[in-house]
Design brief:
Helix 5 runs parallel beside helix 6. The chain is of the alpha+beta class. The termini are far apart. The strands form three sheets. It has an eight-stranded mixed beta sheet, with helices on both faces. The chain is built from seven helices and 15 strands. It folds into two domains: 147 residues, Fructose-1,6-Bisphosphatase, Chain A, domain 1 (2-Layer Sandwich); 108 residues, D-Maltodextrin-Binding Protein, domain 2, CATH 3.40.190. Bound molecules: L-MYO-inositol-1-phosphate (LIP).
């Protein structure tokens, strides 16, 4: 799809520029601008500045597209394409100076809702590591100029899994119960702190699987496409898609087992 390829090219260019801005602001010192859904759910001045840059570049290049961003919300377009953007995914890592944060940019078609959209282009850029993960629908998944793929090997010692916990402390007991259900599948567990990187790492074979409840659309839009284009399966919520109820990403050999353990007997 030539359009999808062009959208990925645009996403890569903007993600690099936006990521460099985020990295530069990090070296200058980070100011917490506000809290959102909970005391731990912070937004920095850099989050806002980076999203403003991304939105301006996209609007200049494709003024008829829609936009859905973590910090500035939604604006409908007329082109049938919506950009789903997390300017700095892993905001708490960013604020603490942990080099595990990413600019996540995805282009989707259809209604801008995770249960129905089709992601066709995605970029996840970690400027602290200089790593740019990307995918175009039907064209595979890449880390910079290297093709990537999910792990296909069986896991004699168990799977290396990643997860995350919501900002609301009242959700932590349920999240920990989920970890207890999943751990019999695992050799170990990682908590990286940025869903887009968790997903990109599954796509690159750095993780065997990932599960997390409570993600926002911008957390998973780009990373889930990269997993699917790397040969993995994503799902967990309405319509068998990644969503707020649950996001699961894994190779075909692990996906159903991980989904069953993560969702448990609540379904
Ligand atoms: C974060 C996710 C992470 C999750 C955090 C938070 P943010 O997104 O990437 O996986 O565990 O609770 O939702 O807030 O840094 O954009």
């Amino acid at each position: 799809m030539a359009l999808a390829h062009d959208l990925t090219t645009l996403a890569l260019e903007i993600a690099r520029e936006a990521g460099e801005l985020a990295r530069r602001r990090r070296t200058e010192g980070v100011a917490i601008a506000a809290t959102k859904s909970a005391l731990a759910d912070i937004v920095t001045e850099a989050d806002r500045e980076v999203e403003d840059l991304i939105r301006a570049r996209l609007s200049a290049a494709r003024p008829d597209d829609g936009f859905l961003g973590e910090e500035t919300g939604a604006e409908r377009g007329v082109s049938g394409i919506t950009w789903v953007v997390d300017p700095i995914d892993g905001t708490v890592n960013y604020a603490y100076g942990i080099p595990a944060y990413a600019v996540s940019i995805a282009a989707v078609t259809g209604e801008p809702a995770p249960a129905t959209w089709e992601a066709i282009a995605g970029a996840v850029f970690n400027p602290a590591m200089g790593e740019l993960f990307h995918a175009t629908i039907g064209e595979g998944a890449w880390l910079d100029d290297q093709r990537i793929a999910v792990n296909a090997e069986p896991w004699p010692a168990g799977a290396l899994l990643a997860t995350g916990f919501g900002y609301d402390p009242s959700t932590h007991a349920g999240d920990l119960a989920r970890v207890a259900r999943v751990m019999p599948l695992a050799r170990d567990l990682r908590r990286i702190g940025a869903a887009s990187l968790d997903l990109a790492y599954v796509a690159a074979g750095r993780l065997d699987g990932y599960f997390e409840r409570g993600l926002q659309p911008w957390d998973h839009a780009a990373g889930a496409l990269i997993v699917r284009e790397a040969g993995g399966i994503t799902g967990g919520s309405e319509g068998g898609r990644p969503g707020n109820a649950m996001t699961i990403a894994a190779p075909p050999a692990l996906y159903e087992t991980l989904l069953a353990a993560a969702i448990g007997d609540t379904h």
